[in-house]
Amino acid sequence: MSIITRSPFLFRINTGSCNGCDVELATTAMIPRYDVERLGCRYTGSPKHADILLVTGPITARSKPYLLEVLDELPNPFVVVAVGTCPTSCGIFRDSYSIEGPLERYVKVDVNVPGCPPRPQAIIDGVAKALEIWKEKIRNQK
Amino acid sequence: MSGFLKIAIRNLLKGPVTDPYPFGKTFIPNKLRGKLKVDPKACTACGTCEEVCPSGAIHITKNENVYVHTTWYNTCCFCGNCEFFCPTGAIKLTNDFHTANTEEEKYRFTTVALISEIKCESCGEMFVPASEALLKRAYPNVNDTIRELTKLCPKCRRKKAFERLYQ
Lengths: 142, 167
Description:
The structure holds two protein chains of two kinds. By secondary structure, chain A is α/β, with parallel strands linked by helices. Chain A has a single domain (9-141), classed as Rossmann fold (3-Layer(aba) Sandwich), CATH 3.40.50.12280. Chain A has helices spanning 20-30, 64-73, 85-89, 120-141; strands at residues 9-14, 42-43, 52-56, 79-83, 111-113. A five-stranded parallel β-sheet of chain A has the order 2-1-3-4-5. By secondary structure, chain B is an alpha+beta fold. In chain B, strands 2-3-6 form a three-stranded antiparallel β-sheet, with no helix packed on it. At the A-B interface, helix 3, strand 5 and helix 4 of A face strand 5 of B. Chain A: It comes from Lebetimonas natsushimae. Chain A: Pfam families: Oxidored_q6 (PF01058).
């Protein structure tokens, strides 16, 4: 069990984001300056392997089915992190005809990281909080 | 280009540096737009920030004899419009970037400032006085006569100013 809780996989989905949060996420993951892998997590290309889901963007009407598909494929237990103001509360795009957000309408969000975009350190903060929640969920499941 | 060279040379000499943030201190630029800081003494509850906020994060409500200035960070886009348009300079964006919060804290993740009203010296009506910052912006020289007028409600102030002109 201790081995399992050490290495969660991160999966990132863009649901109509302006790319600001994605750039910050790439910075957090790929640049050694803000290395998120120090916390023990790694990025994965498949939602079937994911333990922590990072969502950016305000859930546009076109991206909604893809988000629902990813949510179906996630294994239990999983933790959802809303990165940026858009998935948290739709921010400046609220009440738009093409926006089907916020994220909490479709899945129980665990951690919100508001900011437009959030700073890499804030994303690391959010991932660290998500890790704790994920460990707690695994403990409760066992 | 020189900036890039500087970093490249520094990295060659010292090696790439990872920011020790979750376990240590981090570097924050001074110009970073983070959480708001509202000075309740300078604020006059005019509502300009509420009007210009594109994401509707700022709300000013009135309780008994006090105006409550609330900023909800989960919809704030940290654009700095409130700071730019604030006529008294009461709102300042700090470089505090700690915005990660759990779902339980979602609706409690706010900054609240209380702007209290004072009693009019003449008629006793409650009102928000013009702050020192606003006076400095409105008048080239703020003297005691002007300061005394701020203790009166708008109606009494108009009356007194009119009397002063024609006496």
